[in-house]
Amino acid sequence: MIKRVDQSNVRERLRRRGTFQWFHALTVVLSIGLTLFAWDYSRKQLQSKIQIQFDREAERIVGLVTERMQKYEEALLAASAFLEVDEREITRDRWRHYVDQIEIRERYPGINGLGVVLTVPRQNRDEFIAKQQLGHPDFRIYPEHDQPMLWPITQVVPERPNAAALGLDMAHETNRREAAEKARDSGLSQVTGPIVLVQDTQRTPGFLFFTPFYDIDFSTEMSLASETVRRARFEGLVYAPFLVRNLMRGTMERQKRSLGLRIIDGGDVLFDEHVESQSGFDPEPLLKKELTVPMYGRLWTFDLWSDLSFRKNASSSQPQTILWAGLLIDSLLIGMFLSISRASRKALKMADEMTQDLQSVSLATQANRIGIWDFDPITGKLEWDDAMFDLYGCSRDDFSGAYDAWQNCVHPDDREASNQAVQRALQGERSLDILFRVIHPDGTVRYLGGQGVVFRNDDGEAIRMLGANTDLTEQMKMLDERKQHLREIARANVELKRSNDELAQFAYVASHDLQAPLRRIVSLSQLLKDELGESLSEDAILFMSQIESSALSMRDLILDLLSYSQIESEKRTLVRCDVKALIDSAIENLSELIAECDGVVNCDDVPDINADPHQLIQLFQNLIGNSLKYRGDKPPLVRVSGVARPDATEYIVADNGIGIAPEHRKRVFGVFKRLHAESTYHGNGIGLAICKRIVDRLGGSIWIADSELGGTAFHISVPNVDFDSQEIR
């Protein structure tokens, strides 16, 4: 009786606490206040973030323009230094060669060209024009003006788009003349005010970038510290013309910016994106900013506006979301407090009715399509939950609840194995973990996994088996698909190997078949010479010699291609090689060529490596032959050396030949890659490709560096691998 009264008191207290009381109201008020605070704080944070983003983007744009101008100044300074150091006359070919070497189009996007401006006293005008017409026949100085000094453009590259600028006198116009004189007197790079370039047919804003160069005597400690000295030593200007639209296109892409830009120089607009026709233009921008930056003697004002893409990226519903979410939570709190009385009584009643069995079943069935079963091995009774019937595709009315009924649901091919697995688990030999198939009434086959735990009495006898079944059909399908893919990959690899073998055999046979008609062509040409004798004209003799030469070149090309393909296709056995002896063999093979060019080939004592002897001879023979072929005016000198390192062995083939420019050193290892015309140096461009392929097959690397002898040095690095008689392909 007491116990019943205590339970009633507990229930009554729970009911009262579920009513809406003063502390509930306080909680709601505090929650609303916290919501408003979070909304205001989020709104201010968003505004600050947008401002920071705008400022960062604005500074980035200005920084990009400034950085690009600094890069252009570096190009002008380099050209100025080149003209100061090289005292030769500035000819058309020399200036074009220099500009081509620095690759202004690739390295300096947005630049219109690179040119030279010289100063000419008016009394020397005719003599200067006559001298310039030797390189530029149409050269003239224009337009006319009354200044005592002339500042004509004498060179500009590229010439075609800048043809109208050649001969243009910088002194004829105030912006150009003042910037040029300021550069001369200060010794610093200068930018002109806004001008229209003569080569611009669209008449859009542009400017010129000047850097002075002087007559410097490097044999003395001459200083250009004073303006007087700079004027006395002044020779001219290196200049670059710019269209501002091209400068901006080369500096930054519009689609990668979220700010519109206007650039103003002294009240003149150089560049303007604040127009309705511009993509992304926002007539009422969120933010604006002006930045004034010194720009090589000028002041450029950057007027920046946020555009529509910035507005889109800056928009955020976070503050509103916080506000509405907070108000929704407050409403839910009120509703929760109002309904807590009813909910508490219902919860208590449901809690009284819950049992341990329901808890275990609910936990087990939370997984996807998992059925629970309970088997009594003594009586043979088998109980299923609802999920089990879904897995087996049958109804509760069709299932008798006996062990045999389960066996009848299992695929006939899997029944014996499944039954044995259950019996072994009951006997304690192993736990139950099986995979089997079931056939649904519609004929579909499903894969099920079964796991179970056996419960035993004190005597160790099985009294209960509790377990679960899981649908594994999709996993099995994925496994089957993976196996099928693996089989297809294996079959493709076999086909690829067979195809490679057939291609290698075809290359070998084709090369031999192609040599026969070439030999026939050479033989017939020689027979025609012998038969016709002196009756042949000089042109006929020349043509027949060209036929023989072309046929022999074709034969050499076929042999080199065959050699190149065999490196990949033939099996090679790696053995320990006496590299010094193999190099001596390569030198002996080249003895006639060495004697012909009066060359000298020396080989130091070099370390041994594991390699294919035949290919190693071919490697060094090609490299030494390359050094002998590309020789300079002096007799060729070639030195082969080597050194063993802890992880690799390195060989060097150095010569005193004509060398290879750094920008071409990687390209020469490609097939048919030649740096010289056939008429200058005979060859087909395969030799170095063969060398690289041989080194690649050894897992090594080959590269080119400057030689101590004055020419080229080929470096070969082969990793030190401890193996015997290993085959490679």
Automatic annotation (TrEMBL):
PROSITE patterns per the UniProt record, alphabetical: CHASE, HIS_KIN, PAC, PAS
Residues annotated as domain CHASE: 141-303
Domain PAC: start-end pairs: 432-484
Keywords from the named record: Coiled coil, Kinase, Membrane, Phosphoprotein, Transferase, Transmembrane, Transmembrane helix
Chief location: membrane
The Histidine kinase domain, residue ranges: 509-722
Known EC number: 2.7.13.3
Subcellular location: Membrane
Domain (PAS): residue spans on this chain: 384-429
Bilayer-crossing regions: 20-39
Catalytic activity entry: ATP + protein L-histidine = ADP + protein N-phospho-L-histidine
InterPro entries given in the database record: CHASE_dom, CHASE_sf, HATPase_C_sf, HATPase_dom, His_kinase_dom, HisK_dim/P_dom, HisK_dim/P_sf, PAC
Coiled-coil segments on the chain, per record: 469-502
Pfam families the record matches: CHASE (PF03924), HATPase_c (PF02518), HisKA (PF00512), PAS_3 (PF08447)
Record has Repeat as a keyword: no
NCBIfam families: sensory_box
Full protein name: histidine kinase
